[in-house]
Amino acid sequence: MAHSENIDPETIYKTDALIAEDIDAYLETHQHKTMLRFITCGSVDDGKSTLIGRLLYDSKMIFEDQLASLEADSKKVGTQGQEIDFALLVDGLAAEREQGITIDVAYRFFATEKRKFIVADTPGHEQYTRNMVTGASTADLAVILIDARQGILTQTRRHSYLAHLIGIKHLVVAVNKMDLVGYDQAVYDDIIADYTAFAKEIGIEAFTPMPISGLAGDNITSKSDNTPWYKGPALVEHLENVEVMVTANQARPLRMAVQWVNRPNLDFRGFSGQISGGTVKPGDPVRILPSGKTSTVKRIVTFDGDLDEAVAGQSVTLTLADEIDCSRGDVIAAVDAPPQVADQFETTIVWMDESELLPGRSYWMKIGTQFVSATVQPPKYQVNVNNMEQLAAKTLELNGIGVAEIATDRSIIFEPYAENRDLGGFILIDKISNATVAAGMLHFCLRRSQNVHWQDVDIDRAAHALQKRQEPRVVWFTGLSGSGKSTIANMVEKRLHALGKHSFLLDGDNVRHGLNKDLGFTDADRVENIRRIGEVAKLMADAGLIVLTAFISPFRAERQLVRSMLPEGEFIEIFVDTPLAVAEERDVKGLYKKARAGELKNFTGIDSDYEVPENAEMRIDTTKMSPEEAAEIIVDKIVGSWSYTI
Amino acid sequence: MSLTHLQRLESEAIHIMREVAAEAAKPVMLYSVGKDSAVMLHLAKKAFFPSPPPFPLLHVDTTWKFQEMYKLREKSAEDAGMELLVHQNPEAKERGINPFDHGGLHTDMWKTEGLKQALDEHGFDAAFGGARRDEEKSRAKERIFSFRSANHRWDPKNQRPELWKLYNTKKAKDETIRVFPLSNWTELDIWQYIHLENIEIVPLYFSARRPTVERDGMLLMVDDDRFRFEEGEQPVERSIRFRTLGCYPLTGAVESEATTLPQIIQEMLLTTTSERQGRAIDHDQAASMEKKKQEGYF
Known about the structure:
The structure holds two protein chains of two kinds.
Chain A: H1 9-12, H2 17-21, H3 23-30, E1 34-41, H4 48-58, H5 64-77, H6 86-90, H7 94-99, E2 106-111, E3 115-121, H8 128-136, E4 141-147, H9 154-165, E5 170-176, H10 185-202, E6 208-211, H11 235-241, H12 245-248, E7 255-257, E8 260-262, E9 270-277, E10 279-280, E11 285-289, E12 294-301, E13 310-311, E14 315-320, E15 331-334, E16 340-351, E17 362-367, E18 370-376, E19 381-383, E20 390-391, E21 401-414, H13 421-424, E22 425-429, E23 436-445, H14 447-451, H15 461-467, E24 473-478, H16 485-498, E25 503-507, H17 508-513, H18 523-542, E26 546-550, H19 556-565, E27 571-577, H20 580-586, H21 591-596, E28 618-621, H22 627-640
Chain B: H1 5-23, E1 27-30, H2 35-48, E2 57-60, H3 67-80, E3 84-87, H4 90-94, H5 99-102, H6 104-122, E4 126-128, E5 145-148, E6 176-179, H7 187-197, E7 208-215, E8 218-221, E9 236-241, E10 254-255, H8 261-270, H9 288-294
Parallel strand pairs in B: 1-2, 1-4, 2-3, 4-6
Antiparallel strand pairs in B: 5-6, 7-8, 7-9, 9-10
C-alpha cells in the first residue's frame, strides 16, 4: 500500500535527553506518573492494530530484536507487502497469527512523560461482545475508531453501545485514515454530526471527537499540520489529561470490601481490602455491612508504617476500635451513607458461554468479595447490539445481552453499578463446569425483596416430624423414561404405608398435569420443573413427611440444587439405572417410538442429555434385580438409617 | 490525591494475592530468585503485614543457577519468615541432564517437569508466578488467573473472561491455577519499584568484572568449574551484568559499567533490545513460549 512507511531507527530510539544527561532527575519525574487504562474499539479494517502499533512505536516501546522479528513476520504473513505491518506487532498467538485474526483480549503497555497506559486490545469479529466487555470492564476510556471513508457502521454503533453499557465515562471518537480522504474537514464534520445524533439516541452524554491517521501519525502524539482546522488536542495529549476513575471515586462515600482477616496473633485483628470508594482516616466512624454495627477506625496499617489517610484505589489493612464481627465478604462503609443489602435485583447480563442461560438454574455469583448462589429469571428482553432494539427472549446465548431479574440465596451488599463498579459488577459461574458464564451489572433491588420476611412459626419442622414419629426424607428417584422409577417408588410407598409411615409420592406425569402444566420440555423448562418440585418436596419434608419423587431429572445441577435445599442427610438420591436400549425396548408409554419418529422433541436419551449421577446414595440396576427386591433394599435404607425405633 | 502508576500496580498485586490467600486451598509462591521474584516476594510481605505471607516459597531448581542466586534464596526466605521448599527433578538428577549436553531437554526436564512434580507432590492448587505481559507476545493475552488442566496443560483458546477485579477461582479437583500478580508491570516498572522500595536483588544484576566466554554471539559467565570450554576457549575478564537470570550456561550477559540501579535503568532505557534476548529459550521459533506454556512450562 502506498501509505506505508519505512522505519528509521534514528527516530525510534531518539529517547528523552534527560535519560542520558541526568538519570536521577528523570526517575524523579517518572515516579510521579499516573496510570490510565483504555480500550480501542474498531472492526477489522478500522486500523486498530495499526493505531496501537503506532502508539507503542512513538513511545519507543519497540526494541530492535522485536523490530527484526516484526520485519521477518511482515514479509512472511504481513498485509503491507515488504513494509512493516504494525498489526503483527500486536497480534499474539501462533494460531491467530496464521489466520490473520486476533482471538482474544490482549493488554499492551506504553508510557509518556506524564502517564503509563494499559491498552486493552480486542478483536473485531463475532466473539466481539464478550471480549470487548471484558476489556472495557477495567477501562477508564474508550477510543472508538471510525474509518473516514466508511463513516458510522453497524460496528461503530455496537462498540459505542457496549462502551456506554459498561459505564465508560470518557469516549474518544477518532475518525481514522484521514490521510485517505485528503484531510477533508467536510468529511470529518459529517461523520461527527451523524455520531452526535446517534450518541444522543442511546444516552451518551459527552464524547471527544478527533481526526487522526494511525498509519501516518496525524494528531497522535502531536497536532498535525494536515488538519489546521482541528482545534482539539492530539490523542496522546487527551489521554494524558483525562481524569482517571480511581481518582473520581475518592469523592464518593467510603467502601472497602473485606478480602482477608489479618490475625497474626491474639493482640491484632485487622481487615484487609482494597478501598473502592472514598477516603478513610483514623478516628472515622464506620458501619460494617451486613450487620449494620458501627465502630471507628483505629489504625490504617501498612508494611511501610501506619497511614494518616488512605484513599480509593489503595490496598490497606484497617483495625477498629471495637471488637466487632467482620469477615470476608463484609463491607466497611461510611457510617452515614452505607450501601444497600438485598436479595433480588434488576440486572443487565452479558452471556459469555457456549451453553445458553438456563433461567431457574442455580449459578455461583461473585460480587465484590461475596460468593453466593443466584438464579436468573427469564429475561425481560434481549438487546440487539447492532441497532439497540429490544427483543423478546426466553434465554440468552453466547454474546447475548439482556435485562433480567436475579435472586440470590442470601442477602448481599451492593451498590448500583453506575455508582460503584466494585459493588455493582458481578460474574456468574457454572456450578459444574466452573466456567465464568456471564458478567452482569446490578441496577437496583426490587422492592419486594425488602418486604418479604420469613414468617416465624412455633410448630417447626422438628415438631412436625416428632408428631409423626419419623424423620423426614426426600427420596429422589432419577433415571431415563421407562427405567422403572414410578413402579419402584410406588412399591416403596406401599411398604412404608404398611409400616405406618407418613409419606407422599410426587410423580412426574401427575405434577405436569397441575402445578407444572405451563412448562414444556426445553432445557430451561426442565430446570424450572425440577426447581418447583424441589420446593414442594422441601415444604412436605418440613411437614415431617417422607417424600418420594419420580422424575427423569436429567441434569446434575438441579438434583444438586434440591439436595442443597435440605438439611445434610435428608436427601437420598436413587439412580434407577436402566440402559437406554432396555428402556426403549420396554417403552411402556410408547414415547420412545414417537421420539424416534421425530414426533417428540427434546426427549431424554434421544435428543436431550441425561447426566448420570456421580454421588447417588444408591444405584438400582434394573437388569439385575426386580422392582420388589429394589423396593425392599430402599425401604431398609430409609427406615434403617433412623437413629430411634418406632 | 492521585495515585502514581506504581502505587496502583502495587495495590492491584496485593489485591490479587489476598484473593488467592482467601480462596485457594493450598497456595504457593514460585520463587526463582530473579528480580521479578524479588518484587513479588516484597509485595507478598506488604499484602499480609503484620502477618507473614500465608504460603511457602517454592524454588524449582535446575542445579545450574548462579551461585549468588542460591545465596540470596536462603536469605530472602528467612527475612520474609516463610518456609522455603526446593524441588529438583530426581529423574533429571539421575540421568545427569545438563545444559551442555541436552539443550532443550534440560529446560523441559528440570523446569517444566520439575514444576509439575513439585505441584503434584505437595498438592498445591494455586501458584504465584512473576511473569509479565510485556515480556513476550503470547503472555499479552494470558489472564492474571490462568488455569491448568489436571496434567498441567494451558489451553489458550479456552481462557475464562476476566472482568473488573473479579477472579473466578472455582476449579475441578486436580486442576491448578497459575496466578500472575505482576501481569500489568513492565520491565521499567520493576526496576523503578526495586529502586524506590530498596529491594535486595542478586548482585549479578550490577556490573562487575567477571570471567566470561563469548559463544554464538552470547556472553556466558564461567560461574563454577562445571563450565565446559570448547576448543580454543579461554575465560576472559569482562565488565558485565545480567538483565535476566536463569541457568548460567544458558543466560547471556551484557557488557556494562552500570553499578547502581539508576545506571541500570539508564542503560535499559537507552538500549535497543528487549530483555528476553538474553535467554536462549525464546529463539527456537517465533511461537516457542506459547508452545512451551501449553506443555506446562510456567
